[in-house]
Amino acid sequence: MRIRSVCVLLAVCLLSACSGGGGFFKAYEYEEEMYLSLDGTATLYVNSSIPALNALRGTSFDTDPDTLPDRQAVTAYFTSPNTEVTRLTLSRRSNRRFVHVRIDVKRIEALSQAAPFAWSAYSFKRDGDLFYYKQSVGLAAGKDVGQVGWRGDEIVAFRMHLPSKIAYHNAGADNLLRGNILVWEQPLQDRLRSTPLAIDARMETQSILYRTIALFASTFVVVAVLFVLLIWWVLRRGAKPAKV
């Protein structure tokens, strides 16, 4: 009985932690997650509830939780000459429909020309030994979407996976989170009021992948040389004539 009680307590704690807020897993109402490359391309994931997408970006998708979002209309909305939708999935949480869109971005500095991202100004340039990434998130649509079940504690996030060692960022003391990941958060209500958000990150010019491959290659060469020397030493000892 004691073991069972402990298990129940752990399960309750886990469910509480995963339910959003300050737990292990935060349930964002709207999130842009970018995997940036040093050549200026990117893969961008947008995870958003339908009501948040309507309120923040001014779309008019059906917010009825019992109605599946129009996949073709969502794909068309996120498609532009600079952006290509490569995957779209749907989910449901807190009686709201969510879309999860994977987008290939051809040039990050032109991303603001696509309607879903026109609220931001983007800059990505090299200056000396560093790349500078800046994003200014400005005006939201502020569209009234009625009662959709928001409690007032919903969060908007802008998450970045940077390709090289980070020299500077303004994401706050809780970052870096894991590896080269930075997160800027804002209450949904602030984003609806168009409270400005400035994103600033600077990184080195050599990618972590390149460094990893170079380290692996150099390690392999060292091991190979040592192996050859070991074989040479064994053969040399075996070639010595026996003493009479």
What would you note in describing this structure?
The chain is α+β, with helices and mostly antiparallel strands and 244 residues long. It has one domain (26-208). It is 28% helix and 34% strand. The protein is built from five helices and ten strands; from the N terminus they run αββααβββββββαβα. The strands form two sheets. A six-stranded mixed β-sheet has the order 3-4-2-1-7-9. A hairpin with a 2-residue loop joins β3 and β4. The chain is elongated, with a radius of gyration of 25 Å. It starts with a helix and ends in a 6-residue tail after the last helix.
For the biggest β-sheet, the strand order reads: 3-4-2-1-7-9
Number of helices: 5
Structural class: alpha+beta
> How much strand?
25-35%
In terms of per-residue confidence, which ranges show pLDDT below 50 for 5 or more consecutive residues? 5-9, 11-24, 208-218
Residue-averaged pLDDT = 85
Roughly how many Å is the radius of gyration? 25 Å
Q: How many DSSP E strands?
A: 10
Please estimate the helix content: 25-40%
What pattern of helices and strands is seen along the backbone?
A: HEEHHEEEEEEEHEH
> How far is it from the N-terminal to the C-terminal residue, by CA?
80 Å
- Estimate nothing, just give the exact number of structural domains: 1
